[in-house]
Amino acid sequence: MLNREPLKILIVDDTAIFRKIIKDILIEIPGVEVVGVAQNGNIALKKLSCLKPDLLILDIEMPEMSGIEVLEYLKNEEIAIGAVMLSSLTQTGSAITIKALELGAFDFIAKPQKNNLEENKQAVKDSITPILKAFARKKAADNTSKNKITRKSVSSTLDKRRKASLSALSTNKPGRLKKGRAELVAIGISTGGPNALASMLPEIPGDIGVPILIVQHMPPVFTGSLAKSLNAKCSIKVKEAVNRESLIPNTAYIAPGGKQMKIASNADGKNRIIKITDDPPENSCKPSADYLFRSVSQHYTGSATGIIMTGMGADGTQGLKLMHESGSIIIAQDEASCIVYGMPKEAIEAGIVDVIVPLHRIAGKISETVSKKLNKRIK
Q1: Do domains 7-148 and 153-378 have the same CATH topology?
Q2: Of the residues 87, 94, 190, 328, which is catalytic?
Q3: pLDDT tens digit string along 196-207?
């Protein structure tokens, strides 16, 4: 971990075997300290003041007080403790997990389903280690921001970054095609995504007039629950994408977990459809933003908008390069509003981003690219 201070973790689960699995894994990870365990949310809350954890590894369904109730309490009381959820791979479990993420949980891991204890431990370790590293980086960045940088200097720094990005990227560069009105919007997002999408997508007008395609890094089952939750909040329709369905304006399509999603030509050679495939992961991601963005660059020359939002890793950057070269407008979420800055940071540092904005301004920028107002300013 990146912090000098260990990352203090409280394990909250009503099943003894899972408490043991998680604890055994965590004590093997450098920079992590297990400060305690609790059998349910009620017991966990009573231990917060004395144990002072940075992060809860939190089961969702528990007697007396569930993981959701714990998150609601932390949010209402404004207690700054992170949470990684333990979720079951079921329809019910996935729906509750989406609610947990929308309440502010940092991320989730699926409870292992194998009969072999060692295989279960390895599956959990593989899932949780990068999440803990990302949380530690965020904690370190938050502490640095609080202790060393004033609000004014933060704003100044972000403004300088945005101006530098715009001045460097807004000119027509050799080999880059002219931009036109966006006829499609493609979004890549990962850690922190459900919460960010629940904030941003409801701001999209119901008559936006274009389809929106979203790659949210998630396993199977969870993307369907995410689509259902977002659909209830939005003016546009939100659904999990289906193979070979036509692209319809005012609709957001979420790539199914465990599959890849791309744009393809219909049999008539004129219209475009969604193609869901079982192609291999890219950047260890399935679905992958790069996979989607690459197809958009081929089918929407000079007429698409690419959005890169909060998430770990670099998925999306290579595909956005192709979109950028084919005349798409590229928008990145800014560092201050990201749960994890990895994906936007990689794209920004690659020099392919036209506009850097906080989360609450992304929907407005999308509307501008569709109306061509933003395109005119960037040309």
Answers
A1: yes
A2: 190
A3: 999 999 999 999
